[in-house]
Amino acid sequence: MVNHIIKPLYVRTTKSELGLTPPKIKFTKIILGPIQRELYDLLRSEIARLISGMDKEDTIAFRRLGKHVVRLLQVASNPMLISATDYEEENSPILPGTTKWQLLTEFSRYEKAAKIQYTIKRVRELTDKNEKVVIWSVFVQNIELLERILSDLGAVSIYGDIETGDENESYTREGRIRRFHEDSNCKVLIANPAACGEGISLHKICHTALYLDRTFNAAHYLQSVDRIHRLGLPSNITTNVEILLAEDTIDDTVVTRLGNKIAAMSAVLEDADLRTLAYDPEDIIGDVPGGIDKEDFNEIKKHLEGKTL
């Protein structure tokens, strides 16, 4: 019904009509280390208790759930993110003396974030083959961390605090994009989909994207894929998208819900290419953290209660 209403008002050229080969989507399962696993499970059980009687129609409570979801995404990506506020300023810091604080202390001494370690290893494998790679993360601390670790590969970053300006200035967003395009020693771009999701073309120089983490925001994900898969890409070029999933975490719920959202968008816009992005493994309420909407609620609740998705 919806597509019949919007069709006379909206014309969409699909990627198939542009002659683009669908991107190759790969989901890579990452097993968390024992301390990261324990910290995640503790946080999940606490959040399950806090939302047990929550009404998803309660806007204030729903925003609170969004903040909790961000915490789960952070621990699945890199537990050290929750030791300081990053994605959402209103998050409370972890207090010294609590169980979570003790686990974080142990983590910093004895373990490294599983997805971060995989990302470093994988990017070095790809760049050794003379490929350029774009890494996507929603968390600024992850972006800055990887930029430091991968500095020998000429890594540059783009996120909200990077100002726009003259492409001849190395500190600007435009200057960094130009360097990624033109400098053979700059092999890695690390970016936030919210800050680098539109108006940027990377498809002529980069054909591989690695997603360290994602939120429930389908628009951000689709726009980020479009940075390397768009008009002008030769038909003989394969676009590779690798999405990291921390095993038995909120990442699995994100896959399910993004798949459903993109499939719904595909049906409305009559664009099968969107369905490919969803299944090759918006109803967003205001600025709810994590990009969750009311349709996400039930799947998130299942995960928190430990039910199989």
Give me some keywords for this one.
309 residues; Rossmann fold; 12 helices; 6 strands; 9% strand; globular
Radius of gyration: 20 Å
Number of strands: 6
CATH architectural label: 3-Layer(aba) Sandwich
Summarize the helix and strand pattern as letters: HEHHHHEHEHEHEHEHHH
Report, as a whole number of angstroms, the end-to-end distance.
29 Å
* Mean pLDDT over the full residue set: 82
How many structural units, i.e. domains?
1
Largest sheet: 6 strands, parallel
Tell me about this structure.
Strand 5 (208-211), helix 9 and strand 6 form a beta-alpha-beta unit. This protein has one domain (2-304): P-loop containing nucleotide triphosphate hydrolases (Rossmann fold, 3-Layer(aba) Sandwich), CATH 3.40.50. The chain contains twelve helices and six strands. It has a six-stranded parallel beta sheet with strand order 1-6-5-2-4-3, with helices on both faces. With 309 residues, the chain is an alpha/beta fold. The chain has helices at residues 2-6, 34-50, 59-77, 99-110, 114-128, 140-149, 173-182, 193-196, 218-226, 250-269, 272-279, 297-304, and strands at 24-30, 133-136, 156-158, 188-191, 208-211, 240-246.
Quick description:
With 309 residues, this protein is α/β, with parallel strands linked by helices. It is 44% helix and 9% strand.
